[in-house]
Task: structure prediction
Amino acid sequence: MNLILLGAPGAGKGTQGKNLSEKFRIPQISTGDILRANVRSKTSLGLKAKEYMDKGALVPDDIVVGMVSDRITQEDCTNGFILDGFPRNINQAEVLKNTLEGMGMKIDHVIGIDVERKELVRRLSGRRVCRKCGASYHVIFNPPVNIGICDSCGSEIYQRDDDKEDTIEARLKVYEQETFPLIEYYTKKDLYRSVNGIGTVDQITKTIVDIIEKGNSNT
Ligand code: AP5
Ligand code: MG
Ligand code: ZN
Result:
């Protein structure tokens, strides 16, 4: 099963992607996580991407598209994958479609996680992330059992550079201008289903799993 998680910054793509990856035993592919790993290890891709990420802008399509095309051809994606943070604009969606078609594959579900703007800002400003496994926490809504330590893997958790007020505003604007049109794009293809992103993490996961298992989408 090939799944896309859509949603504004802070909607819970990373959080839900992790649960769904465990449930369906398919990898979660977060372009943001791959880019941040490149920034950390100072690869040439990472150095280039950082300029855009620090401003809250999208990294150029050619960089991101190549990264995803490489990733989905790896062996662990044979039974499917969960895309978190990709595609981010119509061009990326079109390239993805063509790449998958070339491999005899397709997207099965596009799940949009709906959260209002005020709540997005609250979530992003309190978020902490695991350096190693990328698990997302929140200082108030979803704190780790031990302060500063990831529940899943025991590594250090930190605040992302782009979770500052100005950058959050820029990211939300980019979402509205570039990513929001994908809702109409996938609705027209009869692949899109939205879920209410307010509620407990497990409730939201259950709603998504129900949509996928009951085949309420176009499969
Ligand atoms: P990316 O890493 O994808 O960031 P994003 O889209 O801004 O989304 P986030 O990761 O901020 O939010 P999320 O939806 O994953 O929420 P989370 O689960 O963490 O991209 C970063 C940058 O990389 C971009 O700005 C761009 O520069 C570049 N980039 C990435 N992909 C690209 C692409 N395809 N093309 C071009 N550039 C690209 O949850 C948020 C918080 O809320 C957490 O604290 C969490 O604990 C909490 N939370 C989650 N669920 C709940 C709940 N139900 N109730 C209460 N709190 C909750
Ligand atoms: Mg994320
Ligand atoms: Zn971890």
